[in-house]
Fold each of these.
Amino acid sequence: MESTAAVNPLSLCRLPLFPSPPLSPLSISLPPTLPSPSSPFLSQSSGLRFHYVTKGDSRKPLMLFLHGFPENWYSWRYQLCGFSGQYHTVAMDLRGCGDSDAPSQLEDYSLEKLCYDIRDAIDELGHTSCVLVGHDWGGMLAWHFTLERPDMVQRLVIMNAPHPASWLDAVLRRPSELLRCGHACFFQLPVLPEFTLSLEDFKLVRSLLCGGRGGIRNRARRLTEAQLEGYLYRLSQPGGLTAPLNYYRSLLSNALYKHQEVEVPCLLIWGEADSILVEGMSGGTRPYARGSVTLHTIPGCSHWVQQDQPETVNQLLWEFLLDREKDVERCSARRGAGWAIKWTRE
């Protein structure tokens, strides 16, 4: 079990949402989960700098991790280490998140520009393709990037993020599902979401990650106060909430892709106890997959699957990467449809 931190002094000096004047970054200590000033950055064609954390030999195949909201690279800490022996593992802070640059305009968060970020990251890291792994918003971005650039994705791993078209199908069939995604509608409003999320020392964000209903359920993997500060500190900086919320606000301007079939082998991992996205959305991926698809549902696991059950997630990843599931291939050959879905419960 991870050690529990005592009182973290940073919680006493986080910046308010609209500070005046702002504190100097040098006047406080960063949480241990945040990068040091010497952490690497990628300078991209957009002119933005992207922070990333890497482990493993850069000459080995690239495994690129994309986080969700309200997280940063740190949500992939178990996978960064777990796969660094065979892969060049990289977890990047997405545009507007963590220590990456955060442009201020809403149009800077279009899916087109977000996909350019992933393309440039792969290029800048010295690779031509990668195993792409995404969770939540990072999963949605991974879907879109794979649709746009299948030549740059060897294998696709998605965690608790439905195919964009399957999400729309699920909502059209059962409009009540919109209630589970009510936060996405609320986030369309200006200013109010930032104010609400920051109230009472980010109480709602704390509940989202650590609460009894929607937070990490595995007691041995629940976030310590120091780890939680690694997320909250950046969100508490000026504009720290607005940039990631712009991902949601740009949804209405992002058109669905006309060509919606994913052609690369895909692993879909779903935490069954997800309080944000209904499990049924995962099965809707089937009509949009041309390559082989394997779906694993993990009982009792929250939306934060890679942090909640890292051992199970890593095992499923290894099986997928090493092609151990020969029965999926045989099933695909029998059906003759070019894809297969295997429902399993770990």
Note: The beta strands are 41-43, 49-55, 62-66, 88-92, 130-135, 153-159, 266-271, 293-298, 343-345.
Amino acid sequence: MSNQPAMWHRPVPADDRDGNATDAQGDGEGDDEGSRGGSRPPAYQFPGYQPAGYQTPAVPSPADRRSAPPAPAPAPAPAPAKHEPRAGLDTTAVLPYAGSRASTRTRWLRAWMMTAPVDVLALLTPLLVTQQYWRGTLAMTVLTVIVFASGGLYRARRHVSFLDEVPSLCGRLLAAASAVAIVAAMRHESAEYVFGFTRGVAASAGLVILGRAVTREFAIVARKRRWVEHNTIIVGSGPTAVELARLLRRYPQYGLRFVGCVDTPDGPSALPLIGSLDDLDSLVRLRECDVVIVADANCSETSLMEILARPRTAECDLWAATPLWGSRSHGDHIGAVPVVSIGDITLSGPQSALKRASDIAFASVALLLLSPVLLICAVATLIDGGPGIFFYQERIGRHGRPFNIIKFRSMRPVDEHESQTNWSIANDRRVGPIGRIMRRTSLDELPQLWNILRGDMSVVGPRPERPYFVEKFSAEYPQYAMRHRVPVGLTGLAQVSGLRGDTPISDRARFDNFYIENWSLWLDVKVVLRTVTEVFRAGGR
């Protein structure tokens, strides 16, 4: 019997097949409502587990024992094999179990969730004490939070140090305070008012710095006591991966809990191998992982892009252990190993909340202002094609989730299979004159404002596509699948850039991925303004 800790291995079930969000040009029309599901992964078998039908062996009676012939002497047990300790790895460490309470709690203790309320409370404390300077203090609070968020001061870091962020903290506080103080001086000629307000701003700044110091110290204590942990998978099993695993086991203040590594099954591994790279998406779900660190120097760009395209892995924080020891790294570090963020490939945290809030505001105002246009389109649809104003069709949304898109019916109903597999309906005789105008000006898309309010779609994003074409285009162009990392949109950067109708799918995917990787609220505003221009020019289908 080996004295090494035993590890139980089982095949990882294949993940549910997810569709990918795509483009909606050239729609057929027909009703199709489907559902997608997946098989439940098999249960784990723990020590002491007995399968159904298992019978405990009968225990012989004392009489049977006396009449039985003496048993032969057992052979001496072989000496346990000597195992050399692996370099840099604690052999007494065991693989942590999945689904721990710490992993669940950590979802509610993100860095920005702890620091942002403390900052707001510190900025509002002088106002609560003095009951003066309401407008100036509120403006200072809002501006400071925005400046902090834009500077990455609410971003979770592996290496938590208050002193590292003091320069950026003080500089941004000074900029926000100066802007508000200048406006206050221009609006109020009284020197006493300006002096009193400036004194309150200085007190707020001091409280913010003090609150940050306390928050960072609390984060360090919580990590050391393992109150806050993020399950982490390391891609690779080489020397860098071994060093990272050793650091994560030894230093809990990084807040990362090593659950194993994924690598090719052939070849020796000094780390607990829990699966191959193909199993990564399933393992992220089964182990409830929040962080994936790529520590394989031989990981090609194609393999890395495949990792980013997987829906479960895309929701994790992705880091890469960079081998560029002789260059300046602007990322983070774990011990002496520099790591860089691969990028926020999905909108999360404040960005996601900001985009969702802007979507709700835009859709609500648009439905109110465009209600006369919607009524005219509904009446025109009735006149042109008879009863049945709307048509519903299954599309693939974010992370491959299906939903029913709503549009004005601009053509007579067709066969269900044809509506799902026919790419373009240009010059189709079933499209009436009114329907053709609605399609050319994109007025048939207006009911999708309701999809936006429901959360199925966003105002700007990759256009959604039918499941048949999602599978077809994903097989033809690998990076096409990466488009569904964000909510699908009513309009998109590809559409306002002239990529509509029968245009290359690869070009659309490049524009959509560029939008995802360079998202900003101003970029959404520009796409909406260009869309309005296209509608008035009737430059659609």
Note: Confidence is low (pLDDT under 50) at residues 1-62, 76-109, 325-329.
Amino acid sequence: MPLLPRLGVAAALLGLMPLLGSTGCDVSGDLACTEIGCSDGYTVSLVAADRFPDGVYEIAINGDNTPEGCRFEVADGRLLDDETCNAAYGIGPTFPTPEAVGITYPMITSEIEIVVSRDGAVIERLATTPVYETIQPNGPDCDPACRVAGAEFFVD
């Protein structure tokens, strides 16, 4: 069954979710910024209802003619780490049996094409114009400010 894409900034925030609960600013009125960091980027998230089907997954992303890619393998429901990702690579909520894999590419692009394959067969292709959201993990009056966007695909 093919993956079902759903665009949204929520996918881009997969790795930042634990950090976004705090504004980083003092409620007493004095500005006290924390030093939580963030990076501009586009996140591709693969989400499984229970666990990932076994196989070799490849995500190819092309933003404004700048190709990037990531490859990882799932065997017996366990994620086998692969060092081919030129991206921030996160899994959750349980390791080593992932229910979600988020790959954030450090790019801001006006057009993006994503190809997801499993065992060499394309299971989803998406071309879109990203809509970026600016986030400030330390609060609205604190640096940094980062632009994020993403796409989420469901693995059956």
Note: The chain has one domain: 4-22+41-155.
